[in-house]
Amino acid sequence: MTGPTGLVVLTDRRAARRPLVEVVAAAVTGGTRWVVLRERDLPRAERVALADDLRQVLTPVGGTLVVAGPDPLGGAAVHLPAAGPYPPPRLGLIGRSCHDEAELGRLTVEDYATLSPVYPTRTKPGYGPPLLPSGLASLIKASPVPAVALGGIETSGQVRDCVRAGAAGVAVLGAIMRAEDPGAVAAALQGAFDAGSRVGVR
Asked: SS3 for 88?
């Protein structure tokens, strides 16, 4: 299984304007094919049920659900924090959150890494300092695996800057969760990624 490309949506049911599955379904209609299920405060049974619902949205379009944490909730794709576990579990797809070269240097069998925060983020205010596109580009060059840009990405211009920096994908949370029309926002951001990729800025 190859890692995320294009627009990657991270879930946050508390920020979502509508029920989470509806928001994700709208984003999928807009072109999203990668979703990371967070919601780690939910009891496992509720998280499993939510994962099943999201897979039903993603599977018909060839999409992939990645689960935050070491438990894939019946799937085969997980995204792990920088703190661990090391080594990661053996699964079909493994991602890891990274923020600097030291964390990238600890990667072993991971398939991709997220690099964050690229920009200041409302989801985690004060988290950083932000990498900005120049810092993102430097870390991507140092990364042994494809990198997904994460943190504060809300506009098509920011997506294009991340593509220019070499990002294999761009991950968003608030831009989709808080949107009045998640499908339209997803289409715009995915379109910006595709346009940047077509002109060879990756």
From this structure: coil
CA 40, CA 46: separation in Å to the nearest integer?
Answer: 10
Amino acid at 101: E
Q: Which fold would CATH assign to domain 6-198?
A: TIM Barrel (3.20.20)
**Structural tokens at position 173:** 């949370």
The two tokens of residue 143 are 């990364």
Contact call for residues 95 and 80 (beta carbons, < 8 A) = yes
32-64 pLDDT, tens digit per residue, is 999 999 999 999 999 999 999 999 999 999 999
Residue ranges per structural domain of the chain: 6-198
Q: What's this model's pTM, rounded to 2 decimal places?
A: 0.94
Lowest average pLDDT, out of 12-21, 117-126, 137-146, goes to 117-126
Check: CB of residue 185 under 8 Å from CB of residue 29: no
Give the other-Cβ count within 10 Å of 62's Cβ.
7
